[in-house]
Amino acid sequence: MKFDISYIFDALPRLLEGALITLQVAILGFCLSVILATLITIARTTFQSRIYNGFIAFYISFIRGTPILVQIFLIYYVLPVFGLNLAPFTAGILAITLNSAAFVTEILRGGLASVPKGQFEAAKSLGISGFALWWKIILPQTFITSIPPLVNEFTMVLKATALLSVITVVELMRVSQQIYSANYHPVEILSATFIIYFLMCFVVSRSSVILEQKFKVKRA
Amino acid sequence: MTPPFLEILEINKRFGDINALKNVSLNVSIGEVICIIGPSGCGKSTLLRTINWLTPPDSGKIILQGDIIGSVTGKLTIKQNRLLNNFRARIGMVFQQFNVWPHLNVLENVIKAQVVVGKKNSEEAKIKAIKMLNEVGLKDKFDEWPDNLSGGQKQRLAIARSLAMDPILMLLDEPTSALDPELIGEVLTVLRNLVKEGMTMLIVTHELGFASNFADKIVFMDAGEIIETGAPREILKFPKTDRLKHFLDKLSITSF
Fold first, then answer.
1. Domain span including residue B236
2. pLDDT tens digit string along B90-127?
3. A124 CB near a chain B CB, below 8 Å?
4. I need a surface site. Which of A12, A137, A158, A172 has the fewest CB within 10 A?
5. What is the CATH number of the domain that holds B199?
6. pLDDT tens-digit profile of B145-164?
7. Inter-chain CB proximity B88 and A124 less than 8 Å
8. Would you call B89 and A127 a contact, using CB atoms and an 8 Å cutoff?
9. Is residue B38 part of a domain?
10. Domains of chain A from N-terminus onward
11. Measured distance CA(B15)–CA(B58) in Å, rounded
């Protein structure tokens, strides 16, 4: 069996459509997870409640301690038992968000730990508190130091979306499966899929370098 | 009799087993410069930090121009929080570690609180910031990032940031202790100008030279209590208590 590149050219438009869905799921899921993780982090620092912190610690260890594939199945097949029927796309976003939020929370914890207590105090002593304290003073510093691990986490999310093919989200992997199970040319189609995933992740990791450079100027 | 400008009333604070402040009371008149000295761990920084409630005391009151902050412990309600922010905005604070914001450039550091707390528009805030930075001698550093500044420049930036809020009282917590010796002078010069302008200041310091020249009053603290209060000459030349004598002896040995 010889490698026939024309199959790749034929499949390319559909594969790219799939890649677009992959990007949508990844970006949406990641953004939601960053928002969720930020809220978790702020609440954890503000309330210092043992019950709440215990609950978050439990959530994080649960997410970290189980395969993401199982989590995806759980959300797609088990939630309907409790009357919550989600479309594949929605279930996929939810799974990605809940999974990634645990890791992003850990990343932000590290970032926040690198912000000295005096930064809070200086702001408070000037009368800045509550939302403005976080939004203007603390979060920018937390996120700047967290750029490399956050970008890394985004590439993890981008790759994890391939698993959503098992709950019929028509993203890149699913499209690729559909094509090669119809034309029986998995070698060509999977090679193309492989390269598209790689290119997406490559661009993302390069963007980390650019972002770091951009903010490094500020912190010299 | 008019009430004092700032009244610190029976402040108590414990950290676990340590009694950091024991029933400390102090009155400050408008325009007065008070230096607080004492051995490390004597509670002088804690006292300063209770005044703007960065370290809420266990009991006691702080009264600034008749406004009482006190008997507020634990979680603050939204209304109490607003009062507290208003209170803090009137009190400038300068820290040993400067605590300038590294993600904002020099100008933005001074603008930020004016816009967020003072509700000024950014143009007004900028004009004020430029004025303040000129006063502390940072006029050619507007676009610089704080990480590129020397310690003395950072501290002067921190002072400008506080002054931009038009504080009626300045709290300075060992403003020169983290500086290299050759940089202390530039910060003291800025403080000296503030004294001349009549700013009311409470300064925790080890700079006895500065204290004796510019303070109206020196407060000596030890083990969470105010031991002696008086004019610089009295305190430094004629200490009444053994504890103060002992403290001054130790200082003169190290700073021969």
1. 6-254
2. 999 999 999 999 999 999 999 999 999 988 999 999 99
3. yes
4. A12
5. 3.40.50.300
6. 999 999 999 999 999 999 99
7. yes
8. yes
9. yes
10. 9-219 (1.10.3720.10)
11. 10
